[in-house]
Amino acid sequence: MLFIISDEEGDSVHRGQVLYILRHTAPAAKMEAAASVLLNARENISVRSRILNDLKIAQENADLKFRNDSSLYNRYKNLWAQNIGTKVNLDNAQTQYELSYNQMKSAREKYLSTLNDLQLSMKNAESTAAGSKADLENYFIRAESRGTVYQLFKEKGEAVKMNEPVALLGRSGARLVRLAVDQEDIRQISAGQQVLLKTDASGEHIFQARISRIYPVMNEADQTFRVDAVFDSQNGPAYLHSSVEANIIVARKTNCLTIPLAMLMAGDSIRVRENGRVLIRAIKTGIRTTNDVEVISGANRHTAILEPLNPK
Predict the structure, then answer these.
(1) What's the CATH class of domain 1-23+140-171?
(2) d(CA 115, CA 130)
(3) Would you state the CATH architecture of domain 173-248?
(4) Are 230 and 174 in contact (CB under 8 A)?
(5) Up-side HSE of residue 97: CA atoms within 13 Å toward CB?
(6) Which residues form a coiled coil (predicted)?
(7) In what order do the strands lie in the sheet with 207-219?
(8) pLDDT in tens, 6-23
């Protein structure tokens, strides 16, 4: 395999730019032969065609001979009607007339048949040349769209197998975040919702994105649904395959009471200390995040909440 890419990982490429050229001696020779056959086929049906011009001359000669023999036959026939001449001369003229007619007809049919064969040969040559060109083009690996070279898997001289990846390209201005949402929460997700996320590679920096697509088929292995998000700006992280921690904002509330989710017990209850006693109190909950839960009723900001014995 020959390797001619001049770009390095992280550089930009344009649509159609050649990234790799595979060794293509045999298909190039096949393409050259097909192009030669096509050129010859086009020449054979052009005004310069030796084949058609020879047949056209033969047809014109047959037409001329038929006209002469027809004139001679009519002359002998008229003379015989006047009792002039011999029957032998008339019969010979008639025979020559009929032969000339058949030769003229044969010359015309041969010309038309040859023209049809040459046209068919040209179409076949065009088809073969197009197929050879397409086969040869497969040996030139090009960028399908404008983007960024994220990773090169092959170097000059390395072998490559069919369907084996040789480079990783992507659109730098349209990076995608792939999220996995638990089946219990997927009904709360809809396109356009805001996503706050951070990646292992970017540390504590928070990026903003929005839900762009929700896939309807659940991953049975981990009971999650795939959800895609795109960044709100062009300043999203340029790191591929990095782990992501994300929060999808499904609702917003201000001035509400929240407690750590770890303090909530089964049945939406909490342990509280009241008048020196430890009680289990049911509460009504609202919005939940991965860390906190909203308390609608059953506790207030003065309630003394204790660590649960069996946290939910």
Answers:
(1) mainly beta
(2) 22
(3) Beta Barrel (2.40)
(4) yes
(5) 14
(6) 90-128
(7) 176-182, 224-231, 207-219, 194-199, 244-248
(8) 557 778 888 888 888 888
